[in-house]
Amino acid sequence: MKKSIILLSHSRKITDGLKEMIDDMQQNEDVEVVSLGGTSDGGLGSEPLLVVDHINQSAEDVEFFIFSDIGSAVLSADMAMDFLDESQQLRYHNIDAPLVEGAFVGAITAGVTDDINQIIDEARKAK
């Protein structure tokens, strides 16, 4: 099973740095880490359509695990789901966990199991 760890923050620098750290420590080719921090023009902020575009461009068998940090990034993660079709929504897991710790633990767990509930539970425990 393919898994996509989506990182959302107001800052692209934050998500790029976190992606780099996770990629250095998680080598499973079935786990993709995606940095979607900031806005499409490189500014501070968050855009739900960046998430939607990534999902629409992904294969139909990918499970998506979304991690966000604060305020409107969390809202963007929530809003993105509204733009997805029903089959995509079933594969969209908006995780209530700290961005850094949750995404890291979620990605490492996703590298060793296909159990969606275990991935989510382990990420949430990272609080």
TrEMBL record:
Its EC number is 2.7.1.121. Pfam families: EIIA-man. Keywords: Transferase. One of its GO terms (cellular component) is membrane. InterPro entries: DhaM, DhaM_N, PTS_EIIA_man-typ, PTS_EIIA_man-typ_sf. GO terms for biological process: glycerol catabolic process; phosphoenolpyruvate-dependent sugar phosphotransferase system. Transmembrane segments: none annotated. The keyword Transferase applies. One of its GO terms (molecular function) is phosphoenolpyruvate-glycerone phosphotransferase activity. Homodimer. The dihydroxyacetone kinase complex is composed of a homodimer of DhaM, a homodimer of DhaK and the subunit DhaL. This is phosphoenolpyruvate--glycerone phosphotransferase. It comes from Floricoccus tropicus.
